[in-house]
Design brief:
3 domains; Beta-Lactamase; histidine kinase; alpha+beta; 14 strands; two-component regulatory system; EC 2.7.13.3; HATPase_dom; five-stranded mixed β-sheet; kinase
Length: 466
C-alpha cells in the first residue's frame, strides 16, 4: 500500500507540475499574443480610417474653385457622411491670402507648408478637448491671388477607430483564449494517456494480496522502467526478509519449546527425590508460566502476520472447537472440573483461518481453566442467521465490566493474575481479522466469552473451498 501511495503521489505531482508549467507558458503566450493582436488591430483601424480621412481631404481639395476672384468650396456631402457616421468631423479651407473661406477658424495643423504642397499630411492632435486625427493638404488654384496655394485641413475624432480596434482585438483575443484553453485541455488529456501505465501499475499493486510480493507483471514504459525495477527489487528483498522472519519464528518456537519441555520433565523426576516438594512446585509453576508466555508471544507474532495475509479456507467450526477443547485441557488439574462440549445442531462451515481460530480458542480455554472455572467448563457452538459464535462458559467469578475493555489490550493483566496478558488480546485480534468480535457475557457466577464470526455472504463461496 505504501508503494502504491508513493506512485499515486508521484503521478499527481508530475501531472500537476506539467500542467502548471504548460499552463504558465500558455498564459504568457496568450498575453503576448493578445498585446500583439491589440497593436495589430489598432494599426489596422488607424490605417483604414487614415485612408478615409486622407480621401476626404483630397475630395474637399478637388471641390474648391475660383468664383469672381474668390476661393469657393462646394462641400463633398458623401465624404462628410462617411467620416461622420460615428465621429465628429471638423474642417477648414484657407485661401492663398490666409483667409478662412469655409469651416472652423481655430482648426490648425502643425506641418510645414512644403510638406502640404507635396501631398496629404496626417497628424494626431487635440481639438476642442478631444483627441483627433488631422489630414492636411494644399492645392494650387489658377488665378488665385498671392502664390495660388490654398490649404485644406480635415479633422476627425477617434471613436470609430477605437470601436474598430476593440472589435478586431476582442475577436482575436477571444480566439487566442479559446485556443489556449483547448491546448491546456489537450495537454491534460495527453498527460492522462501518458500516465496511464502508472495508473495500471498502481491498480495492479493495490489489488494484490499483502503476501504477494512477486514482480510487477506489466511491461512499464522505458521512462519508468528503472523505477519499476527498483520497486521489484525492493519487493524481492522484502519477501526474502519476511521469509527469514517466518523461518526464525518457526525455529524459535521449536528451539524454545523443546528445552522447556525437557526442563519440566526433569522437574517431574526431581519431585520424587527431594524433601521439599513445595519449592519444586513453585519452580514447575514458573517454568509452566515461562513456557506459556513463550508460546503466546510466538503465537501473537504469528497471529499478527496472518491477520495481514489471511488464508481463509472452509472450516467446520463444530469439529474445530471439539478438537481444540480435547487438546487444550490438560490430563491432570489441581481440582475437579467438569468439561463438556455442545455442538451446533446444524452443520457450521464457514470461510476462516483455521490456524488462527485454533490459537484463539485455545487461549480462551486456557484462561477459563486458569482464572475462571471452579467446577464446570463448557465450550459450545451457536449459530444464527448472520453469525456463528464459539462460546467458552465457566462457573467462575468472571471479569468485572470496567476491566473487560482493558484485557483486550496486549500485556494488560487482570487483578491478581499471573498470566502474560496476551490470551484475550490474541483472541480479540483473531476475531477482528475475521470481521467479528470478542464479547463478554454473564455475571459473577455465570460467565462466558463469545468469539463471534460473521457468516453472511459466505455460503456461496464455500463450494470451491470445501
Amino acid at each position: 500500500m505504501a508503494i502504491s501511495s508513493t506512485l499515486r503521489d508521484l503521478r499527481a505531482s508530475l501531472r500537476a507540475r506539467l500542467l502548471i508549467a504548460i499552463g504558465a507558458i500558455l498564459a504568457v503566450g496568450a498575453v503576448v499574443l493578445s498585446v500583439a493582436a491589440w497593436q495589430y488591430a489598432a494599426t489596422a483601424a488607424r490605417d483604414a480610417y487614415d485612408k478615409l480621412l486622407a480621401g476626404g481631404a483630397v475630395q474637399i481639395a478637388e471641390n474648391i474653385y475660383m468664383q469672381g476672384g474668390v476661393v469657393t468650396l462646394d462641400p463633398p456631402a458623401a465624404a462628410f457622411a462617411t467620416l461622420s457616421a460615428y465621429d465628429l468631423v471638423f474642417y477648414r479651407v484657407t485661401d492663398p491670402r490666409g483667409v478662412v473661406v469655409a469651416g472652423y477658424d481655430d482648426l490648425a495643423v502643425t506641418a510645414p507648408v512644403s510638406a502640404l504642397r507635396e501631398g496629404v499630411v496626417l497628424r494626431d492632435g487635440i481639438y476642442r478637448d478631444q483627441a483627433v486625427r488631422i489630414a492636411a493638404v494644399a492645392r494650387r488654384l489658377d488665378g488665385a491671388p498671392g502664390d495660388g496655394w490654398s490649404e485644406i485641413v480635415l479633422a476627425q475624432t477617434l471613436r470609430a477607430r477605437d470601436a474598430l480596434t476593440w472589435d478586431l482585438a476582442s475577436k482575436a483575443i477571444g480566439l487566442i483564449a479559446a485556443m489556449s484553453v483547448l491546448a491546456l485541455v489537450a495537454t491534460a488529456l495527453c498527460l492522462r494517456l501518458v500516465f496511464a501505465p502508472l495508473t495500471r501499475i498502481e491498480a495492479e499493486i493495490v489489488q494484490r494480496r499483502p503476501d504477494d510480493l512477486s514482480p510487477i507483471a506489466m511491461t512499464p514504459p522505458r521512462e519508468v522502467r528503472a523505477l519499476v525495477g527498483a520497486i521489484d527489487g525492493f519487493m524481492q528483498r522484502l519477501s526474502e526478509r519476511i521469509t527469514l522472519m517466518q523461518r526464525f519464528i518457526a525455529d524459535a518456537t521449536h528451539q524454545l519449546r523443546t528445552p522447556l519441555a525437557a526442563i519440566d520433565a526433569e522437574v517431574e523426576l526431581l519431585t520424587d527425590q527431594t524433601k521439599d516438594p513445595k519449592a519444586l512446585d513453585q519452580l514447575r509453576n514458573r517454568l509452566s508460566d515461562l513456557a506459556r508466555l513463550t508460546s503466546q508471544l510466538l503465537d501473537h507474532a504469528m497471529i499478527q502476520h496472518r491477520a495481514q495475509a489471511p488464508r481463509f479456507v472452509a472450516t467446520d467450526i463444530n469439529a474445530l472447537a471439539k478438537s481444540v477443547l480435547s487438546q487444550s485441557v490438560p490430563l491432570t488439574l489441581d481440582r475437579e472440573v467438569s468439561i463438556s462440549f455442545v455442538p451446533s445442531e446444524d452443520e457450521v462451515v464457514i470461510a476462516a483461518d483455521a490456524i488462527s481460530l485454533r490459537e484463539a480458542l485455545a487461549n480462551l480455554i486456557h484462561n477459563a481453566l486458569a482464572h475462571g472455572a471452579r467446577t464446570r467448563l463448557m465450550v459450545s457452538v451457536e449459530r444464527t442467521a448472520e453469525s456463528v459464535a464459539i462460546v467458552v462458559w465457566d462457573d467462575g467469578p468472571g471479569i468485572a465490566a470496567e476491566a473487560q475493555a482493558g484485557l483486550l489490550v496486549p500485556f494488560q493483566k487482570g487483578a491478581g493474575s499471573h498470566g502474560s496478558g496476551l490470551g484475550l488480546a490474541i483472541a480479540n485480534e483473531v476475531a477482528q481479522a475475521h470481521g467479528g468480535r470478542l464479547r463478554f457475557v454473564g455475571n459473577a457466577d455465570d460467565f462466558s466469552v463469545r468469539l463471534e464470526l460473521p457468516i453472511s455472504d459466505q455460503t456461496a463461496s464455500l463450494s470451491h473451498l470445501w
